[in-house]
Design a protein that fits this description.
This protein is mainly alpha-helical. The chain is 83% helix and 0% strand.
Length: 118
């Protein structure tokens, strides 16, 4: 049942994004920023944690989860470092995920030989 909930909730998030892409003139980059900011906002007002417990990976894997990670990093850094935590918390919390994406993207470029689109 856990997998079904994650699949349905993740599918709803993706369907919402698809509707935004089809029915608005928003570019994909702006929609991605909306998802990250939306995840941060849900985390800020305290709704992301109950959503995460209910939906699991269905809500944490999309970019909404990245916004939550950034917000939690900022919260903990502000508690320990004060004002400077606003600037350092998000970087330290998301460093592993960003580094992994860069490293695996670089390694896959050796395997798949990417080409520039014209």
């Amino acid at each position: 049942m856990e997998y079904v909930k994650a699949f349905v909730i993740g599918g709803l998030v993706c369907a919402l994004v698809q509707v935004l892409m089809e029915k608005t003139k928003l570019l994909p980059g702006r929609i991605m920023v909306l998802l990250v900011v939306g995840g941060s906002f849900l985390s800020f007002i305290g709704l992301f944690e109950p959503l995460k417990e209910f939906a699991g990976a269905g809500i944490t894997v999309p970019l909404l989860g990245f916004g939550d990670v950034l917000m939690n990093g900022v919260k903990s850094a502000v508690e320990t470092n004060g004002f400077m935590g606003l600037f350092t918390g998000g970087f330290s919390a998301a460093a592993v995920g960003c580094s992994g994406a860069l490293i695996f993207g670089y390694l896959s470029s050796f395997i798949f030989s990417p080409k520039i689109k014209k």
